[in-house]
Write a structure and sequence with these properties.
By secondary structure, the chain is α/β, with parallel strands linked by helices. It has 3 helices and 7 strands, in the order E-H-H-E-E-E-E-H-E-E. The two termini are about 35 Å apart.
Length: about 160
């Protein structure tokens, strides 16, 4: 199965690359040192420091693997200037029955942050909006049932 592209801005790509480098060098060394210290304390079966260091090591290696995968499949995007919604677009939508509009930036899942109005292209609303044009209606399935949104504007 081919890997799905992970859409990232150049800034986020750089941020994740820096984090990966730090984890593979500095953080790995810190945890290795903690493991060595914990081993020196004796009986590993009842050694809380050792167990904690092993858990940290597992978490670290999982994060490194995740970052490597994201960066390997990364597609760098910038703001889109198009009349259809895509990753990098800023779109203004109006929920059916609502008075106010909402503005969202469509981003890759690593950059999604609903508090900042950035939704993933893989989220239900993000998926529904992809490829749409101004004036189109989309239906999004939510836990409370289907919701309809109108694409009011695609900002350029």
């Amino acid at each position: 199965m081919p890997e799905e592209k992970e859409y990232l801005t150049q800034e986020k790509f750089n941020e994740l690359s820096t984090e990966l480098q730090r984890l593979k060098t500095t953080r790995r060394k810190e945890i290795a040192d903690s493991l060595e210290y914990a081993k020196s304390l004796g009986d590993l079966s009842e050694n809380a420091e050792y167990q904690e260091a092993r858990e940290l090591q597992t978490t670290l290696e999982e994060r490194i693997t995740k970052l490597e995968s994201v960066l390997k499949s990364a597609a760098i995007v910038s703001e889109r200037h198009s009349d259809t919604v895509g990753v990098g677009s800023f779109v203004v939508v109006k929920k059916e029955g609502a008075k106010d509009t909402q503005r969202y930036g469509i981003v890759g899942s690593e950059e999604a942050n609903s508090a900042e109005g950035r939704i993933s292209n893989r989220s239900p609303l993000g998926e529904a909006l992809m490829g749409r044009k101004r004036g189109e209606m989309v239906t999004v399935t939510t836990p409370k049932g289907p919701s309809k949104y109108e694409v009011v504007e695609i900002e350029k």
